[in-house]
Inverse folding.
């Protein structure tokens, strides 16, 4: 137990007093990270300058307070002065703070102007925030992909998963696809969002930029040291806000060019077409098609009880109509049926009773 306390105490004092040498945040780290870019190191130096100025001001102010309360305490018979104001004192505590603020504003403004200058970039990367993942597009290179939480971390974070998060490497800080960037190259970022406000933040790069739907924000970086640098979304964006990490992998320029070429080739290769259906083999002996039987004539049927209608296409006879009672010339009158007389039965003579 004693050794454990010593270990934690030494770790805390080291992190508090020593200048951080790590790009990524570490346990018990109390100060900012100097980062791995020129802008992050400028911001770190500016932070340290203003921190020490504030420390000096604090020592002077609180030292004067503690000294005056101890030196002029009532138990020693001190009597408070009776005056309303002092012009000299008012000038001193007004002019000196203004000069201090101007002294801090000059390097701060210079650093901010430098961070805002995105000109001269060799590569432009578009970053789009979604709930809850990131899309990266290398403009002009036809390379884009989506980066989200790894499957191992996503499984471990589920309620009652039974997985100890400490057994998962880089828990909540690892992604399935890293953003690979070259070192010693100025890279411009254009940042936006598709649904709600996000914020893209990697502490080692030295800045944070909001991703707002319908707006384009700019930033840039130039990474000096190869390595893997991790960050997270820094704007509350919904229930899974804490589960959309960022991982940047910085590699030498030659290695980056190789990676970029592989990505372009993989995304430009079309999907393999489906195999064509097998052709049906033709028959060797081609049989003649069966003969179609001639149409069988169907006799015309005249409706019962109706006269045959004349053909509309037949020519109309303009001669005078014949007598309706006269029989046609070539018509033969049907023979009258011959009725033979029936002989009457002979009368039966009456019989004598």
């Amino acid at each position: 137990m004693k050794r454990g306390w010593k270990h934690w105490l030494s770790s805390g004092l080291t992190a508090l007093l020593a200048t951080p040498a790590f790009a990524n945040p570490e346990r018990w780290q109390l100060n900012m990270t100097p980062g791995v870019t020129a802008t992050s190191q400028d911001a770190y130096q500016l932070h340290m300058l203003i921190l020490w100025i504030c420390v000096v001001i604090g020592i002077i102010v609180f030292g004067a307070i503690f000294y005056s309360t101890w030196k002029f305490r009532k138990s020693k018979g001190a009597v408070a002065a009776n005056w309303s104001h002092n012009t000299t004192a008012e000038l001193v505590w007004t002019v000196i703070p203004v000069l201090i603020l101007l002294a801090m504003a000059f390097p701060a403004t210079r650093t901010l102007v430098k961070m805002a200058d995105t000109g001269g970039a060799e590569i432009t990367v578009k970053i789009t925030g979604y709930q809850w993942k990131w899309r990266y597009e290398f403009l002009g290179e036809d390379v884009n992909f989506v980066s989200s939480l790894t499957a191992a971390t996503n499984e471990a974070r589920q309620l009652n998963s039974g997985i100890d998060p400490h057994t998962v490497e880089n828990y909540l800080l690892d992604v399935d696809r890293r953003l690979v960037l070259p070192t010693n190259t100025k890279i411009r970022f254009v940042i936006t969002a598709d649904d709600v406000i996000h914020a893209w933040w990697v502490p080692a790069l030295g800045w944070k930029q909001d991703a707002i739907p319908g707006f384009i924000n700019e930033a840039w970086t130039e990474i000096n040291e190869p390595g893997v640098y991790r960050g997270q979304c820094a704007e509350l964006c919904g229930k899974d806000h804490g589960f959309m990490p960022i991982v940047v992998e910085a590699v030498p320029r030659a290695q980056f060019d190789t990676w970029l070429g592989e990505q372009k080739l993989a995304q430009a290769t079309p999907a393999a077409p489906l195999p064509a259906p097998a052709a049906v083999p033709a028959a060797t002996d081609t049989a003649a098609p069966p003969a179609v039987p001639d149409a069988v004539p169907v006799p015309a049927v005249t409706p019962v009880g109706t006269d045959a209608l004349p053909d509309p296409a037949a020519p109309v006879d303009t001669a005078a109509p014949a007598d309706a009672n006269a029989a046609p010339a070539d018509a033969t009158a049907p023979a009258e049926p011959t009725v033979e007389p029936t002989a009457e039965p002979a009368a039966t003579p009456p019989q004598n009773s």
Observations:
- Residues 5-22, 301-309, 318-335, 343-353 have pLDDT under 50 and may be disordered.
